[in-house]
Protein 1
Amino acid sequence: MRFIVIGSGRVGLRTARVLREEGHDVTIVERDADRADRASADGFSVVEGDGSHEDVLAKAAVDRADAVGALTGDLNTNFAACMIAKHHGCRTVMRIDEDYREEIYQKYADEVDEIIYPERLGAIGAKNALLGGNIRAIADIAEHLQVLLFTITERSPMRGYTLSEVELPANARLLAFGKRGESMGIPLPDNSLELGDRVAVLADFGVLDDVRQLLVGDDAGETLASAASAGGDA
Amino acid sequence: MVVAYVMVKAASGDADRIRGAIRELDGVVEAHIVAGDMDFVVKVDVDEPADVKRVAADGIQDIAGVEDTRTYIAMG
């Protein structure tokens, strides 16, 4: 897909790199000459200019882009860029600077499809890292729905079984599976669960405890409680 | 008559309630939620310059969830 990332600071450049690693075509728009040079040296196609100006986004071929990430630290620039990009039929993602604004933009900004508050994501990551253990909260999908990553331990009741033998509660779905030390992938019925393998599960809060008992065993209650609240209060 | 524009920064996502409370203040003729680093722009139309302070400092600043205001008095 074709993406435009506006702003090549700590959030934008990292996003651009991840997209490029996954094989996408990324153009960076950057106002600051030094930063633009750095992004060019990094091999990106760069348009130097203010991403809130239509002629600058036109140079970045906004009319052919699938999505635009307005990821600068300047809210006005980000919002103006989303307005222009939406006008050109792009999906729009806007970075905000304070968490309370998420609610306001979700409600009022039709030009913005998704809102990113990097500090919130960072806080969830930091909390997970501090907790350690074998359960990580990955994302809040809805108020009572969360994606969690479980690591199979010595005590996991399902250790040695295949995925087809794992009977999750009704309000839970297996999303992804990864062998120890390998990347996550689509779960296959004959994948076997061994020590250190990871399983991503979408689960309703009401069945988190059952899922935890099945995949990790009995001694992780506290970790689960902490992990489950990570998204909400981060 | 004195016209002033007050830029309001919130600290809460409850924009509807805050805008409603601003619109109820005497002297406020318009209040809009805006994109950017301020969250509302409020137009005030009052008799005396001192009334601008009454609306901005006492009225708007007293609303729960309002963090900061900046007032610009219109000159022309």
Protein 2
Amino acid sequence: MSERVIGIDLGTTNSCVATVEGGVPKVIANKGGYKTTPSMVAISEAGRRLVGHIAKRQAITNANNTVYAAKRLIGRKWTHPAVQRARQVLPYKLVEGETGDVRIELHDKTYSIPELSAIVLSEMKKVAEDYFGGPVEKAVVTIPAYFNDGQRQATKDAGRIAGLDVIRIINEPTAAALAYGFKKNIRKRVAVFDLGGGTFDISVLDIQDGVFEVLATAGDTYLGGEDFDQRIVEWLVFGFAKEHKLDLRTDVMALQRLRDAAEQAKVQLSSTTTTDINLPFIMSASGKQDALHLQRTLTREKLEELTADLVERSVEICDRMLKEARLDKADIEEVVLVGGQTRMPRVQQMVKAFFGLDPAKSVHPDEVVALGAAVQAAALVNAQQSGSQPDLLLLDVTPLNLGIMIAGGYFNTLIPANTTVPTSKSHTFTTVRDNQTAVKIVVLQGESDVSKQNEMLGEFILTDLPAMPRGTMEIEVTFDISPEGIVSVFAKDKATGREQSIQVTATSRMSEDELQHVLEANEEFAVAEKNTEVFQTLRNDVERHLREVDSLVPKVREFLSASDFGEDALKKVETQKERARRAIQMQDIPALKEVREKLERANTMLKGVAERVAGT
Amino acid sequence: MSAVGDHLSRRVSRYQITSVTDTPTADPIFEAVAGIDITSLPLTPEEGFVVSRLLGRPMSIADVARETGMPAASAKIHVNSLVHKGAARPSGSGQAHSAGQETSSGRTKRPRDPYAGLIFSPADLADGRDLSEEQKKRILFMELHIDDWNHYQLLEIKRSASGADIKSGYFKASKEFHPDAYFRKDLGKFADRIDRVFRAMKAAYDVLSRPISRAAYDDTLVGDLTEDEIEELSNIADLKRRDQEHAARLKRNEATRKAGRLKWNPLAQRLNKARELFRLAEDARRAGKVEEAATHARLACTFDEALTVRAEPILTEADAHKVTVTLRRLNSAMQYGDASMEADIKKAAEAAAVLVEQTRRPELLVEVATVLLKIGLPQRAFRLANLACEVNDKHIAGWRVMGQAAAAEGKWALAGRAAERWLLLEPSSTEARALAKSIKDARSA
């Protein structure tokens, strides 16, 4: 008998567990007969842990101690703007953890997010164990494709805490594609549009001969059904405030009731065009006022108006992804809709309009991700147990750029997004100063050109370098991503052959202060892009501009000094000149690029003025 | 790319396969190649017929001729063509094989032992408990060739593979070598080997899956090819060359047709010719060759009448030029000539009169009229002078000649009016007064 393995879709609002039995993937229902379980955890007055439907049922009366949408916080730093925004809308209390992570305080006890996610995971494990009548250990857990390394690691931690052997973490849209294409013997290019409770993902895959090749993926970890609910809640709150001059958000219980009503209204508007929201006694009588009731009618049209920008954003992300991956929309042969929010007619219309295709009907948007996870779990275990080739293979990609910080605080990508894993890439860097004996390699992940705006994965210092003039030292940095998605970084000084490496496995346990310190105060350890050719051309350009500026300035000085504005402009030109000289000295390529542009503009300005001076 | 093609064709010629018919064997036996999908080969109907006879029944060319009812010569051609296209081969039985045939049959897709000549270290084969021996051999074999095989060989695809073929090859390779295919198996040192092989395959796929990088890579490959690849590439080059030739032929035909259409359209041709001549005329005029310009212009007008209006100024100018020249000659003839030349002078003067009438230039008209008067043709002289005065009624000399001519003819009324005009324009002229007086006298007489 083959080993029991499960796939778990750990969703923002709902979770789902599935397995493969007799070659057929199927969802396992919980004891209540529900195929999905709310991803909610609560601590009751008596201190008992409540999960799933029970937690959801008591959420209104115990809002302060009921955690929902924890997935939106997993692996996030306390200072992340999304966390700060969440603090204002969530009824439960967020506190900063010792290592700069996010914790949740319930009944005076703080819980880390992986701990809370683990409670949901163990509930799903229990659902499966009840079904099998025996223990289950191995599981594939899904995450949004756009999760960064920290979020992935935190999800893995959650699995470990729940007593699961998480054999693989896979992306939700990929899982959906696996379930869609499993045993179908199809040869197709498929787009998976996954608008779930909390996150949005879009992936494009080629499916052929049982191989699933992810071509591109993109997304937004802060766009999902929760945001749609929030829009309705705000609409209700403002309407109520207008009428009664009372802010319902001050009342935690009222807010929880609003949230429930909003979700229900949204779900109903997927099948009807209008719905009533009735919340009697929303505010209990206090002092001079009688009890207040909330009663409003929401039309589908109004809902679409309230959420138009959210839907728009998802389509924009699709467009951007196709452009960046240089894929042609016309080559996509099938669109699979995943996630409860894709039931909204407006979303379906937009997707249809964008891809020019009717979405696949065979897929259940709530269950398909768990089914795909189960399919992958079964495939891996089969590969382990049989001697033949697997009948299903997944070729996945990295969702984000991976690279290191270089001089000036810039981000240098080594492995770009949408590269198939496993992969490795090397690049040679150099020192910034004469006789520099140490360099710091700061490993980052993200989309920005500026290091600070990206997620830091780790850092290390390569020391005892031989003293050499700047720009001559050669330091080879190699990035490697294993099939498991584990990132390793090696740095090698080519002169001595000395090598250093880190494996980015654990959640980066670095506090924000430390991070700032690393990103800002490391001038003496900075590395630079080793590219003398680029530097030479830049240097020539900049020096030419400098000469031009120098020749122009005396001609226009008198004219410009006459006005405050002119005086200011002259000063600015002087600053740019100074900056250019420093950049040349530092061999700082990004700074040179910037200063070249500025000087060019200054030159055009000065030329214009000089012409006018000559004309008068 | 063409450099590559040249290079290939040169390389290929060295590996040219000796044709089966060159072998000195008396009666070679042929058979259909087993396991080949004949429908996928580019066979002619005759070849298809022949190969259908050969299926499962090796036979000689004479047998083929008998079976198909073809002449032996054409049967031979078809069989050779089939051998060339890979559908048939000389039968393996019998000792009638020369070296040439060996090469030929070696070239057909008979499965070869891929590991021939390789000795696997027992230490290596003892490692990795969860792998079969065949798997281990395959992994070791592939790892051995990571560096010396090109991307196509690594993915086990043809040089001519399409984008879809490359993807299929990579997917097939992935299923065999992706680390997930050996999930949590006890692989020992083979784990690293599999990883290395898969990464090499992925790198190969990354290059070949993008047309630009593939083309750049192909350019680096020519120096290092296997025999199979050379043959395949030469096939590709052949196909490409044929395509190019076809395209060139089409283009040429189109050009010829177009030229032909123009050639056989007389109207278009005339117009072309007229335009060409007129261009020449204008060029000549600009160069100061008035007469040449007139000739061309006149010719042009015969081809296209619409050009007449534009040609007129050129022709007039030429006429005026001619008159001037003739006058110069006449003047000198009259000055130095004798009576014997009188007839010639008259003739020339008349010709000049005709020409000058066309130009309608007063100065020239008057000049010719003067000459005509001098040589005793007052009637013609009067006409020209009259014309000159019509064009320009203030032309003194015109009226003068007109008066003199009329007087010479005895048309006193006309002569008197002309003399009057002359006097009006030139009151101080004694000559005019004398003329007027003589006319008056004559009339009164």
Protein 3
Amino acid sequence: MMLKITINGLDIEVEKGITVFEAAEQAGIYIPPLCHHPDLPTFGGCRICMVDADGKIVTACRAPVKDGMIVKTDTEEVRKVRLTNVELILASHNKDCQGCSRNNSCRLQEVSAFVGINQDRMRKIRRSVEAVKPDDSNPFFHRDFTRCILCGICIRTCEEINGVAAIDFAFRGFHTRVSVLGDKPLKDSKCESCGECLVRCPTGALYLAKPALVEREVESVCTYCGVGCGVKIGVRGDRVIKVDGNRDNPVNRGDLCVKGRFGFDFINHPERLKKPKIKKDGIFVEATWDEALDFIADKMHDIKAKHGADALGAISSARCSNEENYLFQKIFRALGTNNVDHCARL
Amino acid sequence: MIQKFDVIEKEALENLEKEQKSDIPQIYVGCATCGNATGAQSVVQTITDKLEKENIKAEIKEVGCIGMCFAEVLLDVIKPGQPRISYHGVTPETAEEIVDSYLVKDDHRPDLALGYFGEGGPADVERIDTGDVFKNQQRVILKNCGIIDPENINEYIAHGGYKGLAEALEMKQEDIISVLKDSGLRGRGGAGFPAGRKWESCLKPQADQKYVICNADEGDPGAFMDRSVLEGDPHSVIEGMTIAGYTIGSSKGYFYVRAEYPLAIKRLRKAIAQAKEKNLLGDDILGTGFNFDLEIFQGAGAFVCGESTALVMSIEGNRGWPKPLPRPRTTEEGLWGKPTLLNNVKTFSVVPQVLSKGADWFKSIGTEGSPGTAVFALTGKINRSGLIEVPMGIELKKIIYEIGGGILDDKKFKAVQTGGPSGGCLPEDKLHLAVDFDTLVKAGSMMGSGGMVVIDESTCMVDVARYFLDFTFEESCGQCVPCRQGTQQMLEILNDICEGRGREGDIEYLLEMGDSIIKGSICGLGQTAPNPVLSTIQYFRDEYEAHIKDHACPALVCKNLIVFHIDEEKCTACGRCRKACPVEAISGEKKVPHTIDQNKCTKCGICFQECPERFSAVVRLTGKENLAAAASGKEG
Amino acid sequence: MTNSIDDIADEAKAFFIIGSNTTETHPVIGYRIRRAVKNGAKLIVADPRRIKIAEKADVFLQLKPGTNAALLQGMARVIIDEELYDAEFIKNRTEGFEEYAEKIRAIDLNEMADITGVPAEKITQAARIYAGSDPAAILYTMGITQHTSGTDNVLALAGLATLTGNMGKRGGGVNPLRGQNNVQGACDMGALPNVFPGYQPVSSPEANQKFSEAYGAKIPDKPGMPMTKMFKAALEDKIKGVYIMGENPVVSEPDICKIKDALEKLELVVVQDLFFTETADYADVVLPAASFAEKDGTFVNTERRIQRGRKAINPPGEARSDFEILCKLGLKLGLKGFEFKKPGEVMQEVAELSPKWKGITYERLEEGGICWPCPDENHPGTPILYEEKFLTGSGKAQFKPVDYKPPAETPDQDYPFILTTGRSLYHYHTGTMTRRSDGLSDLYNVEKALISKEDAERMGLNENDKVRLTSRRGEVEAEVKPVSDLKEGIVFMTFHFAETCANQLTNSELDPVANIPELKVCAINLEKV
């Protein structure tokens, strides 16, 4: 069923059941969001997306559209409420934006700019940041409480996306913060380190233990289990420094697990093999590709000649590509043996 | 009337007759939490021991709070054929004296008596029920408190209890609702939503289960109305909830009582058991086939859990956070997603009387828009603090000067605060206002759940605002930004103002921020948190300005803004202040006027208290000049 | 998988997870299931260990290792007794129901309860949920297959799905979750001893002729040796040279002592890998390969979706992609048809030779992947198998009753415990990749053999106590961790850690059809060191 509503004087037809926020989004009208995330159920705690709907100030992210509704997103009253709210958040927020991993990609910065934060007004505020030590127990991502805006996105992510529910709000009022059962370090909780919360954090509260701003991204498929999650490999220089879930991939729609997201150290690991090696008198000696491949080809011909092709065994890999598996079996079948297998059974 | 109830009522009266042995003296001791806190239990123990040891025939009863908290411990005696005489400030020693003189002999001890109730009392003792305290009161909700033994269901029944239920069970559900609607009864939790409409909206939805919840999460500082009702007359609330269960079609009710009310919980437990025993609660109530059970849920003391949706979350085992709007109404989707009727203790408590006495009777009390009575916990700088019940529409003045007996120590009245941390402060020129839901809101305060704090000239209004804001700051649940961050920010600014760091523009910013917090917060806590600040700015802006511009606290309260000084002319060098000073800041010798070393002084105020009133040599000074003089090392 | 991740996650009304620690081994599918359960889907979990997903289960069946078939037969008995089956589906799309039902009716539910250690009421409850939810999806992994009765277990699962009409339907199916990123593709590409690419049997005269012609060689029409048999054959001098690409059998294979002996005996061992693995020690030549991030190619996920992997960076040093190495080797060996410039050209050859992949091109894969079978260039792919017919002569599903057979090795006086193995969330296979991640190692770096609290108490063992685990094949020392997730007499270890290698102990007995070793059950002894 379609409803007719007006947003800022524009007549819009929208589906019944959607929220004012979604309706505005469809009409291309920006309403500043902080605690809202399209993947998650609404929360309604930040009070930034407030709009005037039929004369009442409501949170756009929760208010359902009604037929004939008149929405105004930029009245004097709306501007004031939003501005005060953002000022209040900034009052206890870390001031150091340059030193923040999310500088330039921060939702709070975006919203602050939109509502028109200015220093004259900010001088009236008593700014103080509660000194709480960051939780750096997890090896992949840490939590800086001074940059947390308590939007609850990480909590809802853990509950709704991953289904682990390792974190929740703890304490009360101004002392509220995100924590785990018993207020222990994250590492000692049931957190599975998937990093889905990190990805959705609108500020720099959750940040990578090793900063990773990439130069370019390459779409690929995760190399671990058989789910085949789409990934975006983040490259800086000649190194892989980050892996993100590919939200456009139909398999995982952006979700990843701890291995897929963070387990890429092996790619640039110093122990990677860099040269072919041939064992001579029990000791491995570096060789050129031609030497190594000639050695193998000769030996294989030799075995085939002496013992027949079935004296060769070929163990392919469930980690290699289709093309590589194809070529591998092709080599051995062309040599005349079906002794081709791989680790499917392990 | 249901036949079965007639039997129960008759039986109760007979039992009571047997139990009470009205041919011997009856002793009542006020044993609500207020009484117990002042020593009621040791009075009870002393008398019990004495009666037994000396074989004196008398009945002793622990009753609830009659409301005269200023006079605790209260001990009342009814000798056969005599009016009830009330003794105040009773200790175990005076209790023995009373027994010896009045019970054993016939000396009613006018020196210990507060007064008597009813007619025909001794001439040398005041009559209480027509005196200042009670003549302006109308006790409807509190009618049994301090009168009956709350642990004896027979007494409740003898005082007309459970009649409302018996009548309700013979009525159609819609008819009960129309009686409530006709009566104009409004919820007593603070917001004053019409009870009849709420019950109706809970009757309508079809559901396999519905719930009735009594909100006894009384959390305002200084408020103890609900506690007193539960401690003094628990059956009235049980009866009201049972009627509600029948009306909306619910078989299960919850008492949400804060765990800090152990006596109320104990009395409720006992009352529930007794009501079940008499078939007034439980399965097949009075043979009508209606089942209703009650469970007590102990809240952990978070103020916000008094908010209906947070309360529901709390019972469900979740974090007690209010649900943001838009959300389904609790009456449609409440506890466990089922239609739920949630009312305050006092609302449920008055329902049986509304049904048994009729809508017209209820409407005859109070005002047209706010019929019935209001219960207040009257506290602060007032002569007679306590629990009072007045008809709606009474003037504030009457409450403070007649019932409350005026301001303590003959000081000057400054303001009255109603509605707890959600309410506001009203100045002297508003004392003519009538107490009802709507008038108070218009004046910038509110009824709230019923706290009334009287403030005198020695109180700083900025400090009062800071006190209430500190409460809401501590009790904010933390869910939404305006309340979580806003209460903190306002508190910081108030702290600054009180400590001499106020800035030009702070008042305007407080007003602006307060407005945004009211508009932006999720629940009533945040939406009303700025009220104490806004109303004190409205009526006492000059005090704020004095703090900010002149660093002066006109009430001489804010420590950072005052200095202690000894007036040379008045000082007789008695040395009391010098000896009492804990930091040895005062110097002087015999016959040499004393001085205070401002560098050492911690402003504890002991010298001020120690200096005998006839000298009044120690004075407090405030304002930039005095502060600067003190800071410069000059003797203050 | 017969179905796609999407359709089961979004549409199944019930999940039956058996022998799969889904949230640890296939975490992203685990998320989807937890979400579905949160939205009201029912969940049955059967596993010897109270794994994490069991927390969310409506019924949790903690069966003894190696008794899957008994449990499944028990469920079938309940479904048939209570007539919970899909009579219409059976009538229209199956064959052999009567014989199957007769055989099932002969099963004693209480006996199955005794064998599995799961109370009959719970088996009944599980059967009712599975058969009573339409559709219901079965998910399994190696807990079903790594048994001497692995094939029977899978047939028993197929029987349940067929009985309840859960085949060829959205939200249903029998879904093995594949453990490695391209295990499906390796099978599809014919890296198996009995089939050519696209599952064309080597014994089929037409297929054999087609490939022999294409490869310019006479390919034998008898299946070759599976890996599990190659090492045995090496010990018997029948195999002389082994080429191992991206595989670490010295840690991953059962009964490792024998594997090592075999490798030592071979004349030629080639190891092609990213790192110097435990197996590389035994190599004559070690070739440096490229990681997934350093090459182009395609991979097939568990739902048969073919997806493009893309090169992000160059391989380190002289390391080369397996594609390049193999092309070069082919040419060195003097073989024809290895003149490929890029992997996309290989895909063309695959499509030409394999009808199931005929419609696959790199261009089409740009748009998010295609599930095979994809018989022509306009075919959208086939996310759900058997929607219209089954791959039997008649096109109908055939009921194949199975008998419960106990595992090859059961506990006795000398080896009174059952060892069962599996994976952890934080590591992958033999750990060549994951154990080189500091972060993953920080989260989990020391193997803890899990034992039941009861056994620990009885034996006076505390957490971190060192124990010696011995089987008829070898021994390992490891720390123990007493847990309440295991029943008495069961021990659990992962196989990620070479230093505490569980596969020193495991049994290499094979399933007679699939040649899969019984890694999930072997008898061991445990003593405090």
